Amino acid sequence: MASYQEIRQMWSDIGMNLEKHDEFLNSFPGVYKRIIQPQEGRPDNMDYFNKVVTSVHGRRPYELFQHKQKGGKVFGTYCVYVPDEVLLALNGVSTGLCGGDQFWVPGGEKYLPANTCPLIKSSMGSRLDRTSPFCQVADMFIGEATCDGKKKAWEILAQDVPMHIMEVPQMKREQDIQRFAEEIWHLAEKAQEVTGNKLSYETLAQSIITINNKRRALQRLNSARQSSPVPISGKDALMVIQVAFYDDPVRFAQMANILCDELEERIGQKQGPFPNQPPRIIVTGTPMALPNWKLHHLIETSGAVVVCEESCTGTRYFENLVDENSQDLEEQIMALARRYMETNCACFTPNQARTDDILRYVKEYQADGVIDYTLQFCGLYSTESYLLRKAMKKEGLPFLHIETDYSEQDSEQLRTRIEAFIEILKD
Ligand code: BJ8
Q1: pTM for the predicted model, two decimal places
Q2: Residue nearest atom 15 of ligand 1, based on CA coordinates
Q3: Tens digit of pLDDT for each residue in 313-336?
Q4: Given phi > 0 = left and psi -120 to 50 = alpha, else beta, which region is 99?
Q5: Which of 25, 86, 126, 262 is the most exposed place for a label (fewest CB within 10 A)?
Q6: Which CATH number is 4-190 given?
C-alpha cells in the first residue's frame, strides 16, 4: 500500500491541480460520513468497499499508475456499452470516469451549456479542472454515441485527450447487432494500436470469464436483496456496484462474494438493517455515479428501502452474461455484441424491454413501488418516463417520477414528495 507522500507525488506526476484537488479532498469525506457511515446494521464485509471509497483517489489510481509504469495502458470509459473484455484482453485496464459529484459541475459548466445533464458536466469538470486521478492517469478515453449531450461533449474533450468514439446503434434489429460487432472490431484495432498487443482467442476467452465473474458476483448480491428482510441497505448495495466500475475485476469479484456469503447467512437468520421491513422500492432511470447517493439516502431516511436499481449502476451493468463457449475470435466478438445489445438504455427505440424488466423486478424483489429517477436535462429518460408511468398504472403499481441534479438544493422538497409516496405504499 502506497504512503500518502507517494500518492501525493503521483497526483503531481500525472498533472493534477493539487490546490483545487485539496478542495475536493476536504469536501468528499463529509458526504461519506453523512450518508454512508451512520447507517446501522451494516454487514461487516462492507469494510473493504468502505476503504476503496474513502481512499478513492489514492489506492486504485496508484495501482493504475503502477500498471502504466510497467508498460500497461489505462482506458477511461463512460458507458456500459463499452466492452471491457476487449481492453482487458489486451492487458489494458479500464476504469469508469463518470462524475457523480456536484464539486465538478461548475468546472463542466465552463465548457458546456448550463442545461446539460449533471453527469456530463461533472465528468467534463473532473477532467478539465485536473481534479480526478482516474482522468489524469487514463491513456485513452472511450466515448460513445448515445445521447446528444455526450456526443457533443466528446468533441470538446477530444481537444484535451486522445479519444476513441464508439458508434452505438439506436435500434436492436439483427443488422444493428452486426453493426455493433463491427464497432467492437474497431475498438479492438484502436486498443491494439495503443497497447501494442494483439487480440487473441485465448486472452479474450479469459477476459470474458473474468468480467462475467464480476457480473456473477453482482447478480448474487442482487439475489440476496430479493429476500425479506433485506440483508443490506440500498445505499450499501449501490456503493458496491459503483466500486465495480473502478476496482480490479478479479479482486472485486472475490470481495463481493465474501460479502454475499455474509448476506446469505443474514438471510438464514432473518437479519438485516431494516428489521421493521419497510416498503420496498425499485429505483429506475439514469445512472448514479460515485458518490451520488442522494436519492437512496432520501428514500432510506424517509421510511423505505431500495431493493433494486434498474439502471446502468444496477442491473443493466451486470444482468446479462457473455456466452463463454465461442469457438473463435469472430464468434467471441459476435457474442460480445449480442450481450451488450441486450442492455436496455433509453437511447434505443423502441425500448419496451426496459419496462418489461421493471415489471419482472417488481415481482422478483417483492417491490411495493417504483421511483423513476431522471437526471435534470436528460431528455431520453424524462421522455421515456411517460410510457413507464402508463405501464405501471396499468399494473396498478405505485409510481413516482423524480427529476433532480447533484446539488442538495431540492433535497427537502424531494423528501416531502418521497415521504408522501411511501405513506401511500404503507396503506
Ligand atoms: S447505457 S444510461 S451509461 S448512455 S443521464 S449522459 S443518457 S443525458 S448516462 Fe448512460 Fe450509457 Fe445509456 Fe447507461 Fe446522456 Fe441522460 Fe446524461 Fe446519461
Answers
A1: 0.98
A2: 378
A3: 999 999 999 999 999 999 999 999
A4: beta
A5: 25
A6: 3.40.50.11890
